[in-house]
Structure formats: structure tokens, C-alpha cells
Write a structure and sequence with these properties.
Largest sheet: 4 strands, mixed
Strand order of the largest sheet: 1-4-3-2
Number of domains: 1
Strand content: 15-25%
Number of strands: 4
Mean pLDDT: 86
Helix content: 40-55%
Length: about 110
């Protein structure tokens, strides 16, 4: 579970996802637990994870959950942004392989 949600991440979650301030921590917890990780991806999606990791040097754990990319560092949420549309098919395939609910990641 995330120990801390940064002020920046809290603002981004509230603005981009549209959830209230009190729900930000729970949303970050769910993303960390149920989100799609690098090792569960293949092909184009794995390359996108690599790109995100290299472009966000502080992020040690990147998850995809609910149609958004969550960037964590040592379980602290740093920022959130939407998954690009051209990667949604790859995310759906990875979620199907993982065996979780498709709505939780896209």
C-alpha cells in the first residue's frame, strides 16, 4: 500500500480521474495492488513501460490501472496520467492473460 501520495499526485488524480480528495489514497492502493505491472506485459506495451521507466527516473514501480498510468517510487505515488489510446488493445490482452477484470486496467 502506498505510504504517501505526493501533493502533485493528489492534484493530478483529482483533476484527471475526477475523484474526491478522500478517495485518492484508496485509488492509489488499488492501483498498486491490482494494477498491471512491467513483468505482466509483452511486446509494444513492455516497450512503453521501458520508455516510462527511462523518462521518469525517480519512478521505481509503474502500474496501469483504470485507464491510467500510475508512477510510484518506493510505494509513494508520484504522478498519474492517461494510457495512450494506441496502447489500449495491448493492455486488454495483458489483462486477459493476467486473469483480472478488464475494466480495472482500461
Amino acid at each position: 500500500m502506498p505510504r504517501n501520495v505526493t501533493v502533485h499526485a493528489s492534484k493530478r488524480v483529482r483533476k484527471r480521474i475526477g475523484i474526491p480528495k478522500k478517495a485518492v489514497q484508496k485509488n492509489a492502493d488499488m492501483a498498486l495492488i491490482k494494477g498491471l505491472s512491467h513483468k505482466e506485459s509483452t511486446g509494444r506495451l513492455r516497450k512503453y513501460f521501458d520508455y516510462l521507466y527511462l523518462s521518469h527516473r525517480k519512478g521505481t514501480d509503474i502500474k496501469m490501472y483504470g485507464g491510467y498510468v500510475y508512477i510510484f517510487t518506493h510505494k509513494d505515488l508520484l504522478t498519474v496520467f492517461p494510457i495512450p489510446n494506441h496502447h489500449t488493445d495491448a493492455v486488454l490482452k495483458a489483462v486477459k492473460r493476467k486473469g483480472t477484470d478488464a475494466n480495472s486496467c482500461v
